């Protein structure tokens, strides 16, 4: 199989795999298989001589997901330096739309669940967009759409990821050990310097040393009290471009085919509460509504405002119906939203499970809506193209 033929490097197959894994996790959690799988996920694995003693579920969310964030950070760096966000002019409209796609879902969440101190802390959960899944749905249903729609969505989702990363770093750091954090920063610097040596020499031995330094840096970050995935972000952002792209290319099939499906399975492994809908937590309803509705309104409205403030006579980057299509795609939270749900309600298992169900339900609603709206817009453009021919 040629590399270009690998479905794990595409967009549609990984998106379908992620959805199947999440559905399987939810299904098995609500069958007699629950106890056996839960026992495995709750089993602890410790690293001798360190403070690292995590359950398998946490090894997945803190460890494997850090590799995913390395790939995200490398793509983010590329877009900020050579891609769709490499100038303020290019970033203006998606940046304003991304702001709306964060602020409006937060407002919707707080309106529904903000009055209760037990649930008010979940407001970051509906702010994220799953890049891989949103682009996968766009690829499935968007044949014929202008390339500007994908560019806009990619920029929007990347900006969303930046905000999600900031939330993780700032809001969910507990009892920070600044010495360990400082050592982790030193590890990032050493990793970055070694990557520049590799870029010049191509030494495989130094590449192996980089791998060791990266693992040590992750361990230091994990024990510092700041979420360990931040180590992946920093390593990816400060790595030299050439080896970074090579690493991203090498990791992409593993991330899409193993890491994200495993995380989706573990995160979605929650028991559906056997209660009446009226007894579900306000957090569940807030997330269920804020993801699809808040994203559509926020991205559509703020994107339209961005079009109004462009220089006079300049053509809009996106027409309003396409902004609405992007807004529905933005409501597909999944990966980062599931991580934020785990972090926001880490101390309350019932609330955490209901928040995860809200993420799954809200993302599914957004997925269905986006499939309908994107298909309609794509059909519109295909008709126009046929008429022009």
Automatic annotation (TrEMBL):
The chain crosses the membrane at residues 54-74, 95-115, 121-139, 151-172, 178-195, 202-220, 226-244, 256-276, 282-307, 319-343, 355-374. Its main location: membrane. It is found in: Cell inner membrane; Cell membrane. Keywords: Antiport, Cell membrane, Ion transport, Membrane, Sodium, Sodium transport, Transmembrane, Transmembrane helix, Transport. It comes from the Bacteria. It is a multi-pass membrane protein. It catalyses: Na(+)(in) + 2 H(+)(out) = Na(+)(out) + 2 H(+)(in). Na(+)/H(+) antiporter that extrudes sodium in exchange for external protons. Belongs to the NhaA Na(+)/H(+) (TC 2.A.33) antiporter family. This is Na(+)/H(+) antiporter NhaA. It comes from Microbacterium bandirmense.
């Amino acid at each position: 199989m040629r590399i270009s033929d690998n479905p794990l490097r595409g967009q549609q197959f990984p998106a379908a795999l992620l959805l199947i894994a999440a559905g399987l996790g939810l299904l098995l959690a609500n069958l007699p298989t629950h106890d056996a799988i839960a026992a495995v996920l709750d089993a602890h694995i410790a690293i001798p001589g360190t403070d690292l003693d995590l359950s398998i579920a946490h090894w997945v969310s803190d460890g494997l997901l850090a590799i995913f964030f390395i790939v995200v950070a490398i793509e983010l760096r590329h877009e900020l330096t050579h891609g769709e966000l490499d100038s303020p002019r290019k970033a203006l409209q998606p940046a304003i739309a991304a702001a709306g796609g964060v602020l409006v879902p937060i407002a919707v969440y707080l309106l529904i669940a903000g009055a209760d101190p037990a649930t008010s802390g979940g407001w970051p959960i509906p702010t994220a967009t799953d890049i891989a899944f949103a682009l996968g749905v766009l690829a499935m249903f968007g044949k014929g759409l202008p390339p500007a729609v994908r560019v806009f969505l990619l920029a929007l989702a990347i900006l969303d990821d930046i905000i999600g990363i900031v939330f993780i770093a700032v809001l969910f750091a507990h009892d920070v050990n600044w010495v360990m954090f400082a050592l982790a920063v030193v590890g990032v610097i050493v990793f970055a310097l070694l990557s520049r040596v590799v870029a010049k020499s191509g030494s495989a031995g130094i590449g192996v040393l980089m791998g060791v330094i990266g693992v040590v840096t992750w361990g230091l970050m994990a024990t510092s009290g700041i979420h360990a995935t931040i180590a992946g972000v920093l390593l990816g952002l400060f790595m030299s471009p050439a080896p970074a792209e090579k690493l991203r290319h090498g990791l992409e099939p593993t991330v899409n085919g193993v890491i994200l499906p495993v995380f989706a399975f573990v995160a979605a492994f929650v028991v559906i509460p056997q209660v009446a809908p009226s007894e579900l937590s306000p957090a569940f309803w807030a997330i269920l509504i804020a993801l699809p509705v808040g994203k559509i309104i926020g991205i559509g409205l703020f994107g339209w405002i961005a079009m109004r403030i462009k220089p006079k006579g300049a053509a809009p980057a996106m027409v309003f119906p396409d902004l609405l299509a992007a807004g529905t795609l933005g409501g597909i939270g999944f990966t980062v939203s599931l991580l934020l749900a785990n972090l926001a309600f880490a101390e309350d298992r019932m609330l955490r499970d209901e928040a995860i169900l809200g993420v799954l339900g809200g993302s599914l609603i957004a997925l269905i809506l986006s499939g309908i709206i994107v298909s309609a817009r794509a059909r519109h453009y295909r008709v126009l193209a046929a008429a022009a021919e």
